[in-house]
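Q: What would this chain look like folded?
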Amino acid sequence: MTTQLNPSYTLTLGSQQWTEQLIGLGLTLEVAPRVDALRLQLPASAPLSAERGDPVTLELDNGEASSTVFTGEIDTISRRLDAVIVTCANASGVLARLRPAETYENASASTVIRSLCDVMGVSVGSLEDGPDLRFYVADPSRTAWEHVARLAAWSGATARVAEDNSLVAAVIDASRAELALRYGRELSSLAVRKQLASPNFTVAGEAGAGDVNSDDALQETTDFFAGNRPSGPGRDTRWQFEPALRTAKAAATAGAALKRAGSSAEEAGRMKLFLQPAIRPGSIVEVQDLPDGLVSGPIWVTRVHHELGANAASTWVDFKHGGDAFDPSALIGSLLGSVGGLL
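A: My prediction, written as structure tokens:
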């Protein structure tokens, strides 16, 4: 006898807890620089007493397992004749409110990230150290969340918000799956897009020094690559200029990280699942029992959208190819090949 699963939720808004009255719920979780968002629809007559800034937690249960999927605060409350709409933000949205104007000296990328988080009262989890920076200008042309994404990407790290609302920026190891899904069980649809091979990426700093603490790191130069100029730009090579990266090694690391990200995007797609609360951006997934030619090897999740309502209990997942394309050891190997003559 088959037991029907009954998805449910537990939502806390301020001092109130809700388990039944929602008309609809939509939660989108992203990787930086995109921002997470929770949208709730309540009946117009719902006795909502929470206000902007009040704490929010959301737990989803698919009938087999439950997880806390969102921790944050109320951002907006809109009242209509037929409904009350509540939108909520987590640490990504809080950091997106800040456009900093600050210069940091002699700091690592993770130190700058921690400082930006401190300004907005955001807690920090695991952070990749990233490159040492002689200086970094956190200018108002970017939000703090966009600065976080930029700083993390230089070392191949992916920034996102954990379920406890702490910021995490770590190098994802997508070589081994941590969760298995099966077509016909959790998974109902899947589409994959394959594209041309990613170009090689070259990142040029402004100094090309051997040591970030040397006087050369503050001098502009016409030789960004310390005598080891790579080919390009051209059909198969793309260049990018990052003045904050003062050493050839830091620039090579950033270039290797871009290549790794580009290779992973050569195979990407979207799938629809029965509600899966445990899946988050950064999750490494294996899909079983698919027809040949759709997905080979592990994939890593870049975006999750949960929907729960009268006629929906679904999780939509955007993903990119994992395996060797997103293995940290491949990043290290690429880096050593890039900077072997520069150290």
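The longest strand covers residues 66-79.
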